[in-house]
Amino acid sequence: MDFKRKSCILAAFFLVYVSRKACCVQGASKKSPYDAAITHYEMLSPSPSGNERAFCQARGACQGKTLVCPDQCKVRKPVKNKKQKGCFIDCSSKCEVTCKFRRPNCNGYGSLCYDPRFVGGDGVMFYFHGARGGNFAIVSDDNLQINAHFIGSRPQGRTRDFTWVQALSIMFDTHTLVIAAKRVTKWDDNLDALTVKWDGQTVDGVPTDGDAEWRANGGEREVVVERTDDTNTVRVQVANLVELNIKVRPIGKEENRAHNYQLPEDDAFAHLETQFRFFNLTDLVEGVLGKTYRPDYVSPVKIGVPMPMMGGEDKYQTPSLYSPLCNACRFQPLSGTATT
């Protein structure tokens, strides 16, 4: 009898313990399978090599998969006194892991590199040549516009320019942030060829020690330009709008020879390689890159050809790097926006 009574008591205690544990787990999670897939995951213990891991829980193509932070997320040449490690987890249908502190991935979503080659929000690669000396709307939405200034060269006998993006202008609210590559005669990896302008005023260098970052705009909509290497590589954040990973690089002698650019010896054609990450875009977003983030977008480029071309120069050309005006642009700047 005593034995049965003890067994019942133990069983009762066990059931109470299990039920309380289940409630605690449920309360801590507070997520259903229908929550936003991007953020619906559980962090696992690191892999044997120390890489972060996450288990995707939301319904969809990525459900049940384990995403692992890649080795390249560990910066080979860390900025002085700054820890640079970790990943962004995206458990949507992309099943993508990207480094928090990183160089642009020119094959990743939202990239803009080379003789401008894009990878759209739909994952489709295309080229948009623009024009030497021209300015084009890369993104134009209700509360954000990003323009690009193109530099280039046209060797004798060619019918079009070779072009690269030399500067980006990010317009929002009443503000304008410009990230640009300086004109460099001879390239040196140890010299900074990156410049920053905020509302028309040149920023006197982004710090290279401590937090290695420059901040503006306080709590209004904070802007951060953060070094991810000692020179020529930064991460730019405009809160709740966009994040950019940018690297300034030249056209090297071998690259010049291989592509027959025929560039002059007194110009390294320093330009930007960029990867964008957008937040809160509307369904009607425009721009060379922006439109590829529309939910109903279908790419018109020819898939499978070596250089799939995207037109639209007439729709997206702007009068200047600082102008929000183009035939398809949506951005309406507030009064007081910097225009120089």
TrEMBL record:
Keywords: Signal. InterPro entries: Root_cap. It holds the Pfam family Root_cap. Residues 1-24 form the signal peptide. This is ROOT CAP DOMAIN-CONTAINING PROTEIN. It comes from Salix purpurea.
